Amino acid sequence: MLKSLSGDRVLWGILALLAIFSFLPVFSASTNLAYVVGKGTPWGYLIKHFVILAIGFVLMFAVHRIPYHYFKGISILLLPVIVLLLIYTASQGTVIDGANASRWIQIPFIGLSFQTSTLASVVLMIYVAHYLSKQNQEQTGFGRSLLQLWLPVFIVVMLIFPSNLSTAALLFLTVMLIAFLGHYPFRYLMVIGGVGITAMLLFFVLVKSFPEAFPNRVDTWMNRIENFRSGESEDGNYQVARAKTAIVTGGVFGLGAGKSRMKNFLPQSSSDFIYAIIVEEFGLIGGIGLILLYLLLLFRMTVIAHKAPTLFGKLTVMGLGIPIVLQAFINMGVALQLLPVTGQNLPMISSGGTSAWMTCIAMGVVLSVSAKKSTVTNSNEEIYNEKNPLSVLSETV
Q1: Could you tell me if 45 and 270 are in contact, meaning their C-beta atoms sit under 8 angstroms apart?
Q2: Residue 78 to residues 101, 120, 265, 330: CA-CA distances in angstroms?
Q3: Of 91, 117, 309, 377, which is most buried with the most CB atoms under 10 A?
Q4: Which of 12, 10, 18, 80 lies closest to 345, judged by CA?
Q5: Are 145 and 135 in contact (CB under 8 A)?
Q6: Which of 70, 8, 61, 4 lies closest to 371 in space, CA to CA?
Q7: Half-sphere exposure of 122 (CA within 13 A, CB side)
Q8: In Å, what is the CA distance from 236 to each residue of 26, 44, 70, 222?
């Protein structure tokens, strides 16, 4: 079986460690759903988590066997599909407590919800990497890039934005970073950044002027930011206060696996706030160890990007890898009250559904690049430009 695994073995090991470790906190924290909320059993949630991760690793294995240059065409074909999925998701008009909650669609027959923004992020980042590698070779103009690159980016981001600010912002910032690493002219990036900020401000103005026009989450975002600044114990700060209590209770060595006291008082303890449960049960040592594991994940992906034979491979690895690590640190930052509540889960650790599959698919693409199956045999394949800023980043690490 191990002989059939290609790609970076260290990366395989890191992902396996994260998945194996996740069973302990998920099983422990799921008692909140079983005994407080009154849904299911801890063993049921553990089995569900195991099945989801097992399917995820099967997807990862299947994807990593595909030569990575095939993903160029796949991203082009899937781009209109994800736009339609995002439109369908937004058109559902799902509202919770008056706020836009149109993030998921139901997958027929299997009873799982699917967050379309996760698939959109993976496809868009591969598409952006493909365009930038082609643009680097052909030196296309700014006007052409507005239509071929930035129009799809803005369409996807603006469809995600009304219901999920943090995901939309993370996606847009990652695209900007990858564009910079892909040697896209900095003066044009400043223009695009200005357009993005203007569009966001215009959205807020329209919502405030016509609050009943369509469901939105502006009031929720403002309340979370205000609660974060003031420290008032309401809404998200209720969760943060109990997450801090769990972290303090853990001390240096923790209470031990399954012995969390706050898991029954902390909402979303098995998903958004699972890091607090990890620190409570495994202590400061466990919390720091998990941080180091994510840093090692980032390091390995930087090494893979440095070794990739083409610019497309390098940008794809960074475009898919950076958001996963950033999401992890955002999740931990919320639990530590360093950031406002965002709703981002802990990749490969939190219980959930299809978001874990998208993470596995993204890592499968990264492993495909690391496998070097697509060596440069085509004269039209873009070769890495040594003047690209990515070389400086890689050599520094």
Answers
A1: yes
A2: 24, 9, 42, 28
A3: 117
A4: 18
A5: yes
A6: 8
A7: 23
A8: 21, 28, 43, 12
CB 32 within 8 A of CB 264: yes
CA angle 23, 271, 128 (to 5 degrees): 105
Q: Parse the chain into domains and list their residue ranges.
A: 2-396
* CB contact at 8 A, 277 and 262: yes
State how far the alpha carbon of 45 is from the alpha carbons of 56, 294, 355, in Å. Answer: 16, 25, 16
Polymer length of the chain: 397
> Tokens for 76?
């082009």
Q: Interhelix angle for 218-230 vs 186-209, to 10°?
A: 100
- Kindly report the pTM of this predicted structure: 0.85
What is the SS3 assignment for 105? strand
- Residue 142's φ and ψ, nearest 5 degrees, are -65, -40
Rounded-to-integer distance, Cα 389 and Cα 387, Å: 6
User: What's the CA gap between 129 and 55, in Å, rounded?
Assistant: 27
Per DSSP, which regions of the chain are E strands? 95-96, 99-100, 104-107, 112-115
Per-residue pLDDT 10s for the chain (397 aa) are 566 788 889 999 999 999 999 999 998 888 877 776 667 788 888 898 999 999 999 999 999 999 999 999 999 999 999 999 998 888 875 544 444 456 677 776 666 677 888 899 999 999 999 999 887 655 667 888 888 899 999 999 998 888 788 888 899 999 999 999 888 888 899 999 999 999 888 887 777 776 666 666 666 666 666 666 666 544 556 778 888 888 998 888 889 888 888 888 887 788 888 999 999 999 999 999 999 999 999 999 999 999 998 999 999 999 999 999 999 999 999 888 888 877 788 999 988 777 889 999 999 999 999 987 434 434 344 444 444 444 434 443 4
- Among 147, 143, 171, 146, which residue's Cα sits nearest to residue 157? 171
